[in-house]
Amino acid sequence: MLTTWTPVHMPEKEEIKERLQTARSLLYDYQMKIKEHKIPVIVLFEGWGASGKGSTIGKVWRAV
After folding, report:
1. Half-sphere exposure of 4 (CA within 13 A, CB side)
2. Dist. CA 61–CA 4, nearest whole Å
3. What sections of the chain are H helices per DSSP?
4. Is the CB of residue 11 less than 8 Å from the CB of residue 19?
């Protein structure tokens, strides 16, 4: 099964920062449109303990 697996190329730190900034800007735009149209939203985070849910929620919350 794993004999055909090839590892994924990890982007450089600068590229990751750029992608994250683009995603945060897009998220902010969506949040403002949702708020403007008064659309109710529920966001659900699911995962094992210590899987990074808390830090991810913190990063998303700070982007607001």
Report:
1. 1
2. 39
3. 13-36, 53-62
4. yes
Buried-state track 1-15, b at ≥16 Cβ within 10 A, e below 16: eeeeeeeeeeeeeee
**pLDDT of 35 over the 80 cut:** yes
**Across residues 30-47, what is the average pLDDT?**
90
What's the rounded Cα separation, in Å, for the pair 54 and 30?
Answer: 22
- Average pLDDT over every residue of 11-20: 94
**Is there a contact between 63 and 30 (Cβ–Cβ < 8 Å)?**
no
The pTM assigned to this predicted structure is 0.57
CB 25 within 8 A of CB 60: no
Q: Is pLDDT of 63 > 60?
A: no
Q: What is the mean pLDDT of residues 22-47?
A: 90
> Rounded to a whole number, what is the largest CA-CA distance in the chain?
51
